[in-house]
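User: Here's a structure from my thesis project, written as structure tokens. My advisor, Dr. K., wants to see whether a designed sequence matches the one we expressed. Can you design one independently, without my sequence as a hint?
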């Protein structure tokens, strides 16, 4: 699975939060969203969500906290 650029979603503590990245699986041409703990990204995803289609690389998103 190949990741794209990562978006950081902050949590309560310094440096704590989540890393979100769209992914692409070349073997299935499937897309997904991987969620990683920002304090231990090397541990791999804590959750993955399969998407009904691939999100093109270079797709940009912005995280805006709820108001």
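Assistant: Designed independently from the structure alone:
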């Amino acid at each position: 699975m190949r990741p794209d650029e990562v978006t950081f979603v902050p949590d309560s503590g310094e440096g704590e939060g989540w890393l979100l990245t769209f992914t692409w699986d070349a073997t299935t041409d499937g897309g997904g969203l991987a969620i990683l703990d920002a304090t231990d990204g090397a541990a791999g995803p804590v959750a993955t969500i399969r998407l009904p289609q691939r999100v093109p690389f270079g797709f940009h998103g912005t995280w805006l906290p709820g108001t």
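When you compare it with your expressed construct, this may help: The mean pLDDT is 85.
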